[in-house]
Amino acid sequence: MGLNNSNKTISADRIDCSGFLKITLALSASLDISSHPTDIVLILDRSGSMAGSPLANLKNGAKKFIDIIDEATDGAQDGNIGSGSRIGIVSFASTAVQDTQLITSVDTLKSAIDGLDAGGSTNHADAFAEAAAMFDPASTNAKVMVMFTDGKTTAGPDPNPVAAAARASGIVIYCIGLTGADGIDPAVLNEWATDPDASHVSITPDDAQLEDLFEDLAANISNPGATDIVIDEIVNPDFVITGVLMPTKGAASMVDSTTLKWTIDQLGTTTNEGASLEFYVQHVAGTSGIKEVNQSISYSDAQNNQAVFPSPQVQVDCGSVVNPEPCPVPVDITIGGCQDSLTYDVGDVYLESTGRILQLNVRLKNVCPCKRVALGVVLTETDQQGAEYQRGMKTITVPAHCYSSCRDVMVKCIKFILPEDLSVSGENTAATSGGICAARYFKARVMAHYIDSEFRCCDEIV
After folding, report:
1. On the chain, which terminus has fewer CB atoms closer than 10 Å, C or N?
2. What are the structural domain ranges in the chain?
3. Which fold, 2-317?
4. What pLDDT digit, counting tens, does each position of 38-78 carry?
5. Measured distance CA(373)–CA(363) in Å, rounded
6. CA distance 91 to 68
7. Inter-residue contact 436 to 448 (CB < 8 Å)
8. 319: left (phi over 0), alpha (psi -120 to 50) or beta
9. How far apart are CA 103 and CA 85, in angstroms?
10. Which of 299, 46, 40 is nearest to 144 (CA)?
11. DSSP result, 414-446
């Protein structure tokens, strides 16, 4: 059955700025379908959430799947699935229906698919049960289910025991998921599918990709097991690879901080077989946003199988950082070769007394969206008797953030210039000692409020 599936998953959909992710690459492969007859049941979701383009794209994908199997079994798209293989159709909503039995007529299979209409709830247990009932226990054909769904179970009993019983009987289960209006739980699809999960489950948020997913799965099922596999993975430059675990099959190594290579001598040449590789990456860019984890990934093998890996994205949150006082602009100075001295006028600089710079960071808690904040910081210095002396006041307009909910905003690098000739903290001051070795003691008071408000007095005109 060739390379059945290729997949890439990440351990989280959101990380902090310097956070880590575990990435899993997975493959599965099986024997050639032309010499090893296979019975395949397509289990197709026709619940109400599939109305419109999802159902249309599902139909196109399922029919393309049938065409590829048709050609693979006897070398031509002649309208008949050959070499002893068969396909059946089960569709489901509130209940499941066997739209065909396991048959070889391509026209009959496609007519059943074209006749599907969307409506009703989602009963996965009944779908698995109807599909399992199609297989003949006495048949020596390999047995495969391809479950497609776009939502969570909303009708019928728990489908997990039904899927588990099917797997225990020797049926290989693949799951294709569409992130539809009802939502979908990837963990549930992993529970239903044959292990390894990552190589038997594909999920897409875009129904336009369904045809490609069905086509890729059928093409790989049709080919012989894969040999001389080479996978080259390059992660997004915003990340670095921090560790590579031993794969379940083959060997893997880091080429550099963003590149790894995974090689497998053979996979699925004697039986249905899966392989997976786990490695870790860390975000290092210092910028927020939704980021693709991999820059590119290439696959090759001796049989010219095609592998399409998903490109998962992660939300990176580096927080909201405001820098109201940037560092001074540097003056560039160049000393030429063989020049042992240089006099250079760096321009005007406002004098600051010998002293210290106190730099404060303030975290504003739970700032609501689209509201500017007025921030005030008052700094005083205390003498040995506890009396306070003014050392400065800063007032800052903190720009509004554009996130959908309240969030903390970090205001960084609020600077106070503290000349030593103003020191009152002790007798050993700069005025008497000429240094900055004596300790000084300060108090900071921070105030903040929203600038923007929806409140208006009755007689106010704004």
Report:
1. C
2. 2-317, 321-335+346-450
3. Rossmann fold (3.40.50)
4. 899 999 999 999 999 999 999 999 999 999 899 888 878 89
5. 12
6. 21
7. no
8. left
9. 8
10. 40
11. EEEEEEGGG--S-SS-HHHHSSS-S---EEEEE
